[in-house]
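To the team - zinc ion complex, inputs and output below.
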Amino acid sequence: MLLELEHGIVFVQQAGQTLYMPPFCTHVSMGIENCTSAYYYVATATQFPAALKHIPWRVAVIRREAPEMHQTQLADYASAILYTLEQVLRGDFDKALNIVALHKNMCDSWNENKDKVYALCAAIEDPTKADGFKDGFKRAWIEFLERKCVLQENGKKLATCQLCKNPINKMSGNKADRLVRHFLQKHWPRADANGVQEAVDKVEIARFTEGKAHQIGKARKGA
Ligand SMILES: [Zn+2]
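Output:
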């Protein structure tokens, strides 16, 4: 069978050897005698922004390779994407990396690929799990955008949305909800375009700003 293969590179791996594969490199491995192989995936912060564009490809592979188990695997995949995104946005990794450039790449990738992330969540049939992942992505971004605005304000700079560079003082809404409203309306895929979006937005904005208006009121009172 090996002799029938064309193109590519063929080699025999010996016991104790490890092979590092670049991302999205098509490959096949075959045991030519009884043996045990083990593999694992490593997500790197620098590669992660570009990985979002491959989500539909990975979803298709999961559906094809594991028809019985595909719901479990889709949930595992969504969980891994969310976990890595949270770490990248928090800057929770090797500090030697250029975090400013990485966050810019992450923002560009989100602007380009957010519909793919949304479609991954929507492919999960259990509505509680699917909503849990959607909320996770929203929270990760809202926290990141708010943190960056606070940093800009502390540095006496004009606070802007990292995803589109719009200044927050030009956004509609009050201090507690304007960035949440902006993110949900401009940077989260619009699931509904049939007239009920406004009602959905109201509930969503209230949910993600819960407690904040109270905190701001308290801070003002105390000031
Ligand atoms: Zn924005």
